[in-house]
Amino acid sequence: MKIQIGQVAPLFTLHDTEKKEVSLSNYKGKNVLLLFFPMAFTGVCTKELCSVRDNLSVYNNTNAVVLGISVDSPFTLAKFKEEQNLNFTLLSDFNKEASEAYHTSYEAFIGWMKGVSKRSAFVIDKNGIVQYAEVLENAGELPNFEAIEATLSKLN
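Above: the chain sequence. Below: its structure as tokens.
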């Protein structure tokens, strides 16, 4: 069942680009923007995450932490983060646990890749409640960042 606004956000623990465990529960008391993305080094994903990088002050000003999540390995994500100078945490959902918990997995991506994360955005408030949920079926589309920013602004 897809994630609904007002529900408690599913908890997860994933590995970051330094292979350290990061849990959603570590961010209790902060707003969190979760951005699931299909694959590092692809055109639309690079555009999306570089846009977040360039506008990180918007999220910082709303007491929000940005977490980018894909099913890529931590090693791939580390290289991607380095090459794109990304200034926020990337998490590897290599085992697809978070993607499944948030119902953001393609059954088949580009015809044959199973379990790739759909481009999705979730805003989770300081109490762990989902305040915004957007799951895109078309990987070529970007999340509605204006709506995300408006949601985050209302939470402060």
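The mean pLDDT is 94.
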